[in-house]
Amino acid sequence: MGPTSSLIWRFPKNARRMGVGRRLVDVAEAKARDAGCKRICLDVAAENDAVQFYERIGMQVAVETRVPELENNYSVGTHYHMVLPV
Question: In this predicted model, what pLDDT tens digit does every residue of 18-29 receive, in sequence order?
Fold first, then answer.
């Protein structure tokens, strides 16, 4: 298994569609390539507005997870594991 790291990104609505996310992904891709990584992966709630952004930049849903007990008891909905080859 290769190198891994974790980041949490959250943008206020007024900071969206200004190119900041794309620039961050560009830097993450370059650093991942330099580190010998083959892909960037993330997990996101399916109803999150960011899913459209991730799909626009080339990420694909690799795994869709829905746990009825979590959804019914804790309002935790469907989640996506998304992947971007680098």
Answer: 888 899 899 999
Total count of residues recorded for the chain: 86
CA atoms of 49 and 19, how far apart (whole Å): 16
pLDDT at site 69: 87
Structure token pair of residue 84: 């971007």
Whole-structure pTM value:
0.79
DSSP letter string, 7-71: ------GGGTTSSHHHHHHHHHHHHHHHTT-SEEEEEEETT-THHHHHHHTT-EEEEEE--HHHH
75: phi > 0 → left, psi -120 to 50 → alpha, else beta; which?
Answer: left
Task: Tell me phi and psi for residue 76, to 5 degrees.
Answer: -95, 110
